[in-house]
Known about the structure:
Blueprint: H1 3-32, H2 35-39, H3 45-60
Amino acid sequence: MDFWDILQYGSWAVAALLLLWMVADAFMVSSQFTEDVLTSSQEGIDELAAQQQAHNAGKGS
């Protein structure tokens, strides 16, 4: 086994670790936030909550 084989296996190991990290992070984020917050284009949760309250107040009238 030469240097390039070791470097190749090391690169695959780093790629696998990054993939596991991204999948774990995706599950953590999806469990902490609702789908509305994740798919909105608003900056922050406070603006989205205020917008939803205003929309719901308009519906009640």
